[in-house]
Write a structure and sequence with these properties.
Radius of gyration of chain B: 23 Å
Number of helices of chain A: 26
Largest interface: A-B, 46 and 66 residues
Structural class of chain B: alpha/beta
CATH topology of chain B: Spore Coat Polysaccharide Biosynthesis Protein SpsA, Chain A
Strand order of the largest sheet of chain B: 3-2-1-4-7-5-8
Strand content of chain A: under 5%
CATH class of chain B: Alpha Beta
Number of strands of chain B: 9
Structural class of chain A: mainly alpha
Number of strands of chain A: 5
Strand order of the largest sheet of chain A: 2-1-3-5-4
Largest sheet of chain A: 5 strands, mixed
Oligomer: heterodimer
Distance between the termini of chain A: 96 Å
Strand content of chain B: 5-15%
Shape of chain A: globular
Amino acid sequence: MTSTLPAATGTEVAAQDTRVPVTVPAPRPAFRFRSSRPDLIVCGLLLAAILAVQGWNITAYPTLSDDEGTYLAQAWAVQNGHGLAHYTYWYDHPPFGWVQIALLTWIPARIAPELMTVGSMRFVMLLVSAVSAVLVHVLARRLLLPVWAAGLAMVLFGLSPLSVVLQREIFLDNIAVMWTLLAFTLAASPSRHLWHHFGAGLAAAAGVLTKETMLVVLPAVFLTMWRHSHRDTRKFALTGAVTACALIGLSYPLFALLKGELLPGAGHVSLWDGIIYQMSRAGSGFILDPHSGSYGVLHSWLYYDRVLPLGGLAGALLVLLTWRWSVTARALAGPALAVAILTLVAMRPSGYLPAMYVIQALPFLALVLAGSAASVVHLVLNRWRGGAGRRSVTWLRYTLVALLVAAAGVYVVPRWYDGDRTAVTADANAPYRGASHWLTHKVQDPEHTRVLVDDALWLDLVHAGYRPGLGVIWFYKADLDPAVTRTMPGGWRALDYVVASPTVRRDAVDLPNVKAAIEHSTPVATFGTGDDRIEIRRIDQATGGNR
Amino acid sequence: MGIWGDLLLTSVFIAAVSLALFWMAAFTLWWQMHAWRTPEVLASTRFGSPDGGEHLSFSLLLPARHEQAVLDHTIQRLLESTHADYEIIVIVGHDDPETAEVARKAAARDGRVRVVVDHHERKNKPKAMNTALPHCRGDVVGVFDAEDQVHPELLAHVDHAFRTTGADVVQGGVQLINFHSSWYSLRNCLEYFFWFRSRLHLHAQKGFIPLGGNTVFVRTDVLRDADGWDPDCLAEDCDLGVRLSSVGKKVVVAYDSDMVTREETPGSLMSLLKQRTRWNQGFLQVYRKKDWKQLSGFGQRLLARYTLMTPFLQAFSGVVIPLNAAIALFLDVPVGIAFLTFLPLVTAAVTFVFEVVGLHDFGKQYRLRVRFIHYVKLIVGGPFYQVLLAGAAVRAVWREQRGRNDWELTSHVGAHLTAADVIRPSREDVAA
């Protein structure tokens, strides 16, 4: 018998729902961002406000930083096929961060190569900010916060003067934050889908490969996943996510292995050396010791905003203390743990605390603070409500909430107004623009001129016709990169100019060649005044002899 | 061309193979994990609780060939069923007096047992069942193997599932239990676990399903309309499922660890290889019969094509994955290409991890003690099992090419039964 059944003509054999009806565990009240009109409206309006404040005057404020220039120059190197960096890539950070910057800036850089400078390319960071801000809102809703609190988290995250300043800059941390927020959002997926959790692991790994310091936040991602997964599928979800994260994370050492640069050896850089360098960076002291560098960094943050960092810390403390009683506190366990871990790491007395460190904490501070606000409001409105509350009591409750809101507004609004007004009006980069203009137009033969600059100017000079790498030289490399020092047999004498920006002057102390170049040169043009000035100094060839 | 041309060619080739392997493994993994996608999906794979009403009558087919040692035990256990209306039809060969004797004694003891004798010169399971089909009086025909341990409440659950879903076919779970017997039985058990616990539900949902060999229930009229089983196919179970689902018959799959039919793995590596060869060859035959082409959806046909070819893709990937990685490590290809070659390894690693978690879940579900050494065996045995699967696949192709499609039966030693249940001599494979 090999006959086949006659085809059922005309009847569609569609995919069937063949599941046996049984008592399915009641799904949690599902929040669907895409189909929730209030959420879309709140999120859309706030996003517009955030983009307006962050985008307006983005090129002129804050001051261009050497790090931004480095990441962008490395992205430029990727785009132009020069490898993973504008100098030898030495495993200082995983390259995924600026590979993404290269992708984001690819199209504008194709259209107009001279746009590839720090000031103009800051605009791509708006895209990162926008995605992160929306993710903060979605995550807040998935962590069971009401719409207004999700909006508040978004405002705190996107409009705090501290956020505005830091999120404008081309920092890897901002991109890593975006990935980590995606990981949190997927971990808290209301459908508790295995592959959402798997995706959370992938996103977390992408975050770590963008900026390795995100590693410390991973426990908070997995805690969130633990809390949001179902007992019956949890072990598959969590092991899947951890596996995904680990496997993608391992691609970095694998990359080093394939290039033969995993372990140290003669004549090449190595991942091992890179890690040793990062782990042994000189500590910046205990953060609460007024004489330490870390204390200075902390105060540079608090200068822009106290509400988000300090309020967020207090909120995290509140969440941890009210863990047993408050539903909101338990829902916020993940972000609160992230804040706690990042705080403890910052408190290491021997650790190095970079200025952008706080960027990683911003979304979690915002979520925890907004969640605490939601808890307090809920407490005032609903606690000790016996049966049908009397009308006067209800009225009193609302008055109290209104007073709290007003008090918070009176404290926060003027301070943020000042901070954000500075951000949208101040021009901190006139000296850089002046220096760039001078070096572009006043130097006769850029192709045969050698200049020491910090990376904020490096791409400007490449576009002006200086030779990338050995003509326009990132000042650190004049002392630290054998491939560059080899071309400078006479040390500072091999140079024509040194552009003494605040960064160059600060770090010249530990860089003999740079220091000598500054000492054996005279300013030919100065832009700005005081400590922020940028001097273009010509090397004194009379005292230097032949080059 | 020269060295650059060679390098480019190698690179393109490696990249293409790597990506193909990656997607193959990724899809297989995706489907394997179907039941655990969400808690709701997992809950929906179980049997619904019976409501007490029993309206269907069952004819349970029990083909037995040289199974005198276990047959009586199986019949006894089937007679313990809580369902009120069923008959057991034991099918024995005319040349197998020992088994027939056991069956006749059982029939004499209990009126619900009947014996049908199969007089075919060359015997196989589909012929035996086709012989019994005209004798079935029940609304639903169920199939069990002579060594199966069937749960007493299974029929009540199946009855409920038929009535509440309007299904034409209900496939219950089958589970190999003796994971501790050997390294390959561990992997074999886990294969069944992932297949019946998870993957089959996806097939039922997509409307294309290769049925299992037992614990399968079909409405008698549907089965008769389909002319029963294909006597020339080595995987008549798979074939029946493909034919029924291809014309839109509704198939429901339900899996409850309490309710599964417990079986044993083949007693030796060689008999496992023979069993797998037979299945693979059967899959190949089903593929060549082209019944699946009647499926209306493009996706369904693709799933059918892929599923029926899986043994061969598996064989192929088992050989190529390590080769590919070795090429990447030792040949001087660009870093980007070398990276791609690791993609299949990534999916393989994820599969391994999920297998470990699956073994843990298996132990929990069946209240079996899974020790650390079993996890080690699972991991270490993985590549060797791949070799076995690849061997079976190659053997199947070779046999199909040579036109050899006789049955290589699997012998059963009763490892899934506790020692007190039964003591039986082990038996050589039956050469047909």
